[in-house]
Every structure is written in C-alpha cells, then in structure tokens.
Amino acid sequence: MFSYIKRLLIGRPLKSTELGEQKLNKTKALAILSSDALSSVAYGPEQILIVLATVGAAAFWFSLPIAVGVLILLVALILSYRQIIHAYPHGGGAYVVSKQNLGMNPGLVAGGSLLVDYILTVAVSVSAGTDAITSAFPALHEHNVAIAVLFVIFITVLNLRGVTESASILAYPVYLFVFALFVLIGVGLYNIAAGNVSPAAQTSIGEPVAGISLFILLRAFASGSSALTGVEAISNAIPNFKDPAPKNAAKTLAAMGTLLALLFSGIVFLAYSYGIAPHAEVTVVSQIAEEVFGRNFMYYFIQGTTALILILAANTGYSAFPLLAVNLAKDKFIPRMFTVRGDRLGYSNGIMILGISSIILILVFKGQTEHLIPLYAVGVFIPFTLSQTGMMVKWIREKPSGWFLKLIINSVGALISFIVTIVFFLTKFAQVWPVLIFLPIIIFVFHKIRKHYEDVGDQLRLTTCEPAVPIEGNVIIVPVAGITHVVENSLNYAKSLNPDQIIAVYVAFERDEEKKFEEKWKKWQPDVRLVTLHSYYRSIINPLTKFVDIVEHKAKESNYQVTVVIPQFIPKKGWHNILHNQSSLLIRTFLLYRRNVVITTVPYHFKK
Amino acid sequence: MFSYIKRLLIGRPLKSTELGEQKLNKTKALAILSSDALSSVAYGPEQILIVLATVGAAAFWFSLPIAVGVLILLVALILSYRQIIHAYPHGGGAYVVSKQNLGMNPGLVAGGSLLVDYILTVAVSVSAGTDAITSAFPALHEHNVAIAVLFVIFITVLNLRGVTESASILAYPVYLFVFALFVLIGVGLYNIAAGNVSPAAQTSIGEPVAGISLFILLRAFASGSSALTGVEAISNAIPNFKDPAPKNAAKTLAAMGTLLALLFSGIVFLAYSYGIAPHAEVTVVSQIAEEVFGRNFMYYFIQGTTALILILAANTGYSAFPLLAVNLAKDKFIPRMFTVRGDRLGYSNGIMILGISSIILILVFKGQTEHLIPLYAVGVFIPFTLSQTGMMVKWIREKPSGWFLKLIINSVGALISFIVTIVFFLTKFAQVWPVLIFLPIIIFVFHKIRKHYEDVGDQLRLTTCEPAVPIEGNVIIVPVAGITHVVENSLNYAKSLNPDQIIAVYVAFERDEEKKFEEKWKKWQPDVRLVTLHSYYRSIINPLTKFVDIVEHKAKESNYQVTVVIPQFIPKKGWHNILHNQSSLLIRTFLLYRRNVVITTVPYHFKK
Q: Quick check: A125 and A39 in contact, CB under 8 A?
C-alpha cells in the first residue's frame, strides 16, 4: 500500500548504474540552477528604489550607478566562481573551498549558513510566488499558507522523482520568463528610442540631491545585491552535470551571468527611464509592463511567468542543499543518512528534510516570509566572502601559472562580498542579527556530531578496541504470561539452542494466582525451571528487570551470556496491533537499552 | 526524567493492596458523581424557557407543569436506578443491565452511546464553564480554547492521581454551589412571601395561549429533561464506593435526587415568579441572582460557583467512562489495555483516552460545543430507555417478592425515557442525526474487536491448536556491514549457540567492493561461510529478504529454524540514535512481520 503510493508519486526505482543518465545537459542545468538567481531580478531593482525613495524621487538617478556597482559585483562573482569550478571540479562550493584553504571552522561557517539559507530560499520564494498568484485571484488569498505548502510538497515530489525529470518540467517556465522579460526590455527600449516616453518623468543624472548620504547609498547597494543570491548554486552542483562537468558548468555559469546582467540592467534602466517609483501594492516590474504594454496579454504573461519563476526558484535550493549535505555528511558533521541515494538516485533524505523544514518555516511565519529576505541575503554573502578569501589563499600558496590575475579576481570578489556583508550588518541589523545566534549553535552541533562519529569509529575498529570477551556458555530467560501455544513455541526454540540453563519467569499480580500457576507448570513443563515474581505495583517490567539484573550479574562472573526470549504476536491485519498490550515491545526496548542481554524475538504469526 | 515528571504529577505508585483505601465515602461520592447532574440545573430551566419564548412571554406559565413533568421523570429515574443498584451491586449501569436482560446488541447500543456521551460530557461542560469564566474576564475570551484544554488536562491529571484525592479537591465547589443556590432560592422565596416581588411580571397560570402546540410543549419538555443527564453516573460507579457499596450508592443516589429536585423546581419557580425571560447574553440563573441580590458579593459568588461546577461536571465523565470501559474490555469489545490499573490504581488508560478525545472535540469545535448538547442528551436517554426496559424484562422473568411494584416503577421510567428519546428525534433531528451514523459504526467495531480476541484465544489455547512443530536444528544468518568489533561480537554469540550452520551475509553496492570484502573476510573468519549479495537498487532489505526466503524455504523441509542475528548500537546518549542508520531496526521489523524467522538482537553498548 505505502510502497504503491510511493511508486506512483516518485516512479520506479532506478539501478545505481543508471546514474549517468540522470545527469544534466547545459540547457536543462541553466533552467534548474538559475531560477533562483534569475527570479531575483523580479525584486532586486525594486529593493534599490525602495531605499532611494526614503530620500525622494530626485534620488532615483542614483539607481543607475548603484546598478553598475551591482553589475561589477556580479562580474567579480561570476569570474571568481568560474575559477572555483575549475579548481574544484567535484563541487562543494563555499564549504569545500573554505574548508580546504581557510580551515575547518571557516568551512563550517560557510556550510552552516548555506544549509540554513537554502531552507530560507525555499520558504521565501514559494511564499513570494504564492503572493503573486493570490494577488491575481484574491479569492484564494485566505488559503495562502495552504497553497504555499502544496507548492513545496509538489516541488519536493518532483525532486524525489529525480534530477532530470524535474528539470524537464522546470525548463519551460524559466525560459518563458527570460523570453517575456527580453520582450519587455526590447519593446521598452524601442519606445524610448522612438521618443514615445516623456523625459519629464526622469530625474537628471548627476544632479546633487539633498539628504542623500553614503549610508543610504550603501544600503541601496546592499539591497540591490540581494539580486545576486543564487549565483553560487552552479558551483555547488557540478557533480550533476554531464561530462565534461566542470567545462559545462563554467559555460552554464557564464550564460547565467550574462542573462542576469542583461535583465537586471534592463529593468533598472527602464524603471529609471519611465520614472517609476516603488509602490506598496504593485511591483516595479508590473508597473513597467503596464507602461510598456498596457493591461493586455503581454502584461499578464509577464506577471504569470514571474509568479512561476519565483516558485521555481525554490528548486535551486533542492539541487544545492542535498549536495552540500552530502559533503558535510561525508566529513561526519551531519548524520550519515544524507549520503544515501534514494530509489530515484537523488539524495532523498536531504530533499525531504529541506521540504519539511521549509514547510515548518512557512507555517511558523504564516506565509509572510518577506522580512526574512535580508537574513537570507546575509546568509549568502558570508559564504561568498569566505570562499573568495579561500581562493586567494589557494593562489598565494600554490602559485600556478597566471596566479596573479586569478588572485586579483578573487580578491576583488572577496572584498566586495565582505563590504556587502558588513553593510548588511550596519544598515539592517534588526533583521540579520539571528545569524549571529544560529551560526554558533549550528557549528557547535556540527562538532558534537563529528565527535560522536569519531568515538564510534574508534570503538568499532578491531585494531583499537579491546578484544571481545569469549562466551563460555548461555543462560536463556523466557518470560511467560500463561500456559499457551506461544509459550510452548518459545520454549521449544530455547531448548533447540541447547543452552546451559533455561529459566521461565512468571510475573504474578496476586498471591493465589502465583501458587496455581506453579502447580500447573510442574505438570506441563516439569523439566523447565520456573521462577515466579510478585509485582506489588502491577508492573511487569520492574520485577523482570530486577531478576534479569541478578542473573546477568552471576552469569558475568563465568563469562556466560544471558539471552531473553520474547514472543511477539504478528497479527494478520495491521490494526490488530493496538489490541495487544505490546508488553513484548516494551520489555524488549527496556532490557536492550539498559542491560547487556541479547534479546531474541520469536514471532507468532496469527492465522486469522 | 520522564518517570520523575510522572511521579511529580500523579504521585508515588500505590500497591495493589492499597485499593480499599482509595474508595469513596458518601459525602465525597456525592460530590464526585453528582457534579454533572447538579450542574445541569444551571442550564435546564433555561432550555425550557427558550422553547416557550418562541411562542411568547405569555407561554412562560407552562414552565411550571413542564417542570412537574421533568420532576416526575426524575423521580421515576431515581427509583429505577435505585432498583438497578441493588440488583447489580457490581456496577456497570445501562450496559450491563441491557446486555444481561435484552441481549448483546442492545447492551452494545447502550454501552456505545454512553462511551461517546462521556466524551461529549467532558467537552461540553468544560467549554460551558470556560465560557462562564471568560464572560467575567473578557480579556481572556480569545484564549477560550487554550483555557478549556488546560482545564481538561488539569482534570485528567487529578484523576490519574486517583479517585479519592480528586474527590477531596472536587467536594468543596460542589457543596459551595449547592449552598449558593439554596441561599438564592431561600432569599428569593422570602422576597415573594414578603410581597417584595410585583406579581405583574407573571403570566397567569392556566390561561390559554395562542400558538402553543403539543409539539412545542414536548420540545420544551425534552429540552428541560437535558437537566437529568448524569443521573446514571452513580449506578455505573458502585465499585468505587466503600462497603457496603450498593447501600451507600443507593443513599447517595437518593440524596442527589433530592438536591436535584429541590434546586430544579426552585429555579423554575423563581424564574416564573420574577417574570424572567431567556436572554442571549445573560443566563436565567444570573438574572434571578441579580433580581434577588443585585450585583453584590452573593451575585458573584453564585456566578463563580456555577462556572466551577460546570467545569467539574466533566469529572463525572472521568469516574464513569473508565469503569464502563473496563466492563466492555472484559467482554472483549474494546482493547484489553482498558482493564489495566495504573500506578495510582485508577484505570489510567481510560482516563487518558477520555482526556485526549475530549481535547480533540474541543479543538475541532473551537470550544463552541453548545450545539452538541441535544446530541449528548439523546445519547443519555437511549441507554436510560434500554436499561429500564432491561429491568422490566428482569422482573417479569425472575418475579421476586414485590416484583409487580418494581415492574411498574421501571415501566414508567422506560416509557418516559422512550418518549423523551422520540421527542428528541422528532423535534431536534437536525442536531441528533449523527447518533444514527456513529452508533452502528461503533457497534460494528465492537464486534470486529471481539472477533479478533476470540480468534486469538482459539489459536493460543493448547487444547484447540495444532501441536508445535519440533525444531530439528538451527541455521543462523548474520548480516555483516564490515569487519568491525560489532560483527565480531555477533559472530561470537552465534558460535556460542552451536548451530548447525552460520552464514554471514554481506550486501554490496559496487562490484569491486564485493571482491575486496570477500578476500578480507577469508583472512579474518576463514571458518565462517560468507555470502555476498549485490544490490542494484541500493537497498539492503530487498536482497537480504530474498536470501532469507531461500534459506528459510530449504530449512523448513527438514524442520530447521532460521535465526537472524542483528547487531544494534546502543549509544550513550539518546540523541545519538538519529546519527545511526537504524537499518537494524528496519531489517528487524521487515523480517519479523513478513517471514517466519527468529530475530536475535545483540546489543553493542558504546562506551563514549
């Protein structure tokens, strides 16, 4: 039943050897890995204008130099990450680069913030996309949270089906969005060139503006650079590419950078040229589209593809999170289960944890995750800074041919990323402070987990641990609840093992019951020793545990092993389980975790 | 940790021999078992007036004859239940009486509707009491649901502590409520006698009223008789009384009937004399109290004790539900776990199930459970009718001395209860139809459960089942994950049992890994046969299960028993469990439930 539903949702299991077929070509990779970065042009330019609007419309011309700044940062990041892709062809991104060049803890800072960040990505972008849809259909507005959760479940299932199948579905909306924005920018620029746009709406470039300050400009710049989140996704996901993976990844990165630069600068320029001011209810892109097309088909096409790509931006998180988790799990910082591939060869545990965590975030924030955006941006720029710094160290250490140019590229990237990070802390501290709490906690937990795995390794290794104590003989304890077929079954099994001693144990609640049972037993199993225990408090476990303790203590002296044989009913139907007292399960758990006894479960399958 | 909190909440465990000390004397029993019935005078008279108000204030005088009708019903019920107490001194009430005299299915109808009814009692009365409190403190109004849930948890914990301790706490509010109402009625009657009340407010008795119909009078009567719910509680709970239990119970029942009759008729008479009309926001009792005292201390005292007793009415459900559940469980209609006494000698499973179910009801109805009242009333009058009818059959069958008078008493009770039930269905069908759905379902489930227990009994009894197949020899399968100390441990244990064969099984995901492992194994354990299985789908369970199947099939031919030895890590700290793949648990569950193999768990306790 469960496995049928599973098969229906995620498809037939794939053999490990089919792994190569699941890899991505460049077109699909661009779609699957760029939706996060590309979708941010839907809100990045607006973020700049919102900050400038606090001074006044006269300050809007500053959006042009700020956009140039963002573009420089973008170019620096793309070039830096290109170098990372070639230097680390097995992927891992910021975590691997920081760890190898800067040391364990900087690596964990990068890895930890990215891990949390991908969860934020999913929650924030799905909520934003849902808002866009319910703005179009206000009747759905009250179901916002439910819709967002359904989208997360849908994307999770797509990803559990496997990487290429989800890419096929995801490719269309991403390319449609890019196409729609290019049409918008093209028609918009044509209108300007044709003189259809009144220049009166524009503020003059270079004119001094009262009230503008470096603080505000930096804040606008930091806000604008939130459009660059998602740029690192490709360098994390190199193992998902078809061979030659690094080369294909680098080309995809370049294509994404070009698209992002064109769309971002196009939107900023149109917003400036059409004299658009940010507005609480209508987005900047929507205003531009209305100015350019009016409320016709193209307008709704742009709005629709924007909503879609915002939701699909979540998918970037689904590609990057499981791969990062694999790297952390291989280094033993998070549970090993993240390294296991599921039926469809995706890292299904990572995918599910990501889905569940982001659903929890959406529920906790009731779908209003907008104010998480700065937190999410700072969580990206910390690993940006660390990985670029790591690359600087690498070039200085290794000094390969042409290392100086490479060093300069990464240095510029590191410096700008660092400045953006600092600006976030200075200008938006009220929203980004949680990162200072949760990063130390995460890193503490990482170390705790690794410590445990290392301890376990030490204890399991044959060379380092004490040799096993030889077992000289066996004592078998059989708790009995009555004179039934099940007890007979367990006793037969115990006898067949020829132990040195079999002890049947009966726990009685009343005195006369005790006597009666002993008499019956003598007739039924005269050769098996019976011990009856009296329970004053109606508990079976307490007297049984005490008895097992005594036997184990004695057995230990002569290196005997104590085994407790517990019968377990296996009913025909699942719901029958609640009709049985489950004392066998309780006894088993209790003895196994507290004492050094072997627990043998003899199943008794009911026939009806 | 868990056991410490448990001890703190419900107290130290009690020995089974301390049971007698936990029994109730009459004063405490009256408090603990009458709160449901007595609390209903807070809303019963009002229910009558609400129906009459649909015709007009002129019809209010009909409340007096209707109250007389309700009093007759009350007297009939009290006399009938007095006879039940003496005839069935071991308790069980409607379920036992109906079952023994009318047959199994009428008994189950009575038992099933009471079972659901007690859950409704708790939900409805706690919600009503919470409403009364939050009406006094409107700031708390938005937390209604949370407050109601906390009250249910509080009462549940009280009852888990044990019957007498909860009675001590509960006795005060019940007696305070009775005292408060007697003062109210006394002062009210004095005012009337002293001529301080204007007779102008009253409608003349006996005057014909336009629009009044038999339907409305019946409806008013049915509504008024909702004040009689809870009358059966004492006859269900006889085993909780001190010896001589039936005599004490009968006296308590008489006392409760007298109190209920006095309070009910007093309130109806005062409401009529003061010319009070039902009002959406202020209860009838509150209006009377305001007329009699004004808004002084006594007014708030009456309101406060009313709120308290409404919440405590829930406690009646806690006394009756677990005892009814024991009776049903002894007859195998519900899971056996309801017959087990907890640490404090109460039937803790019944208490907890009742608490959880009523919390669910409160959450589902968001604390607005008022419209469940008719459903709840009909759920009481069905077992009333059945048990009185059962008593009729008993008298006719057994014909003890004075049987004819007894027969008449129960016949009157049965007839009136039956009429009330029919009136509920005729006049409030929109609210009581669910009973027609859930009763058949419950009875179906009852029979299903009993069928299962009987099947199990047949299969366990040594006389009826096939003799056990003798075990000729043992094959032990040890799944191994590597060459580690844990595997060594498991192999040592398997060897110590001297089985006919030991097979180590290794599941490999990759071909070269397979070869390497086989070579290592040959050096390490040359005398243990190793079988390597290749897993194409990265599953350990599938290939292992298939292999176990083959071995089991062969072993069966010569009556060999197959045992699978599974090592299990026992970490030092609980949270470490999530760091291990839990494959041992998965393999165990899978093999145990699907195949006929014995599962032996060898614990490996980590030292750090």
A: yes
pLDDT range class, residue B358, cuts 50, 70, 90: very high
- Phi first, then psi, for residue A478 (nearest 5°) are -120, 105
- Would you tell me how many other CB atoms lie within 10 Å of the CB of residue A474? 22
| Bridge partners, A505 (sequence order) | A479, A531
**What span, in angstroms and rounded, lies between the C-alpha atoms of B247 and A248?**
92
pLDDT at B236 over 80: no
B583 touches chain A (CB under 8 A): no
Show residues of chain B in contact with A473, CB under 8 Å.
496
3-state secondary structure (DSSP) of residue A242: coil
A474 chain-B contacts, CB cut-off 8 A: 496-497
Minimal Cα distance from A497: which residue of B?
B497
Chain B residue numbers touching A13 (CB-CB < 8 A): 537, 539
* DSSP assignment letter at A581: -
Taking CA atoms, B275 is separated from A249, A608, B186, B197, B329, in Å, by 88, 67, 17, 10, 51
Report the residue from A498, A576, A603 with minimal CB separation from B498: A498
Q: Name the helix (H) or strand (E) containing B602.
A: strand B598-605
> Is B597 in Cβ contact with A599 (below 8 Å)?
no
C-alpha B363/C-alpha B358 separation (Å) is 9
Give the Cα separation of A597 and A564 in Å (integer). 7
- Pairwise CA distance, residues B397 & B417, whole Å: 22
> Per mean pLDDT, which range of A579-583, B530-534, B552-556 is the poorest?
A579-583
What is the predicted pLDDT for the residue at A282? 74
Q: For A145-157, how does the pLDDT look when each residue is reduced to its tens digit (9 = 90+)?
A: 899 999 999 989 8
Separation between Cα atoms, residue B171 and residue B30, nearest integer Å: 8
Which residue in B387, B372, B439 sits closest to B418, CA to CA? Answer: B387
Nearest to B525 by CA among B492, B500, B496: B492
For residue A1, the chain B residues in CB contact (below 8 A) are none
> Are B172 and B305 a contacting pair, CB within 8 Å?
no
Closest of B498, B538, B533 to residue B518, by C-alpha: B533
Helix axes B26-39, B245-273, angle to 10 degrees: 40
Q: Which distant-in-sequence residues (6+ apart) come within 8 Å of A238 by Cβ?
A: A85, A88, A89, A90, A91, A245, A246, A249
Q: What is the pLDDT of residues A557-589, one digit of tens each?
A: 888 999 999 988 888 777 777 777 677 878 888
pTM of the model: 0.75
Which of A158, A536, A589, A118 lies closest to A344 in space, CA to CA? A158
Q: Do the Cβ atoms of A579 and B537 come within 8 Å?
A: no
- Alpha carbon A140 to chain centroid distance? 28
Interface contact A599-B603, CB threshold 8 A: yes
Tokens of B172: 């005060």
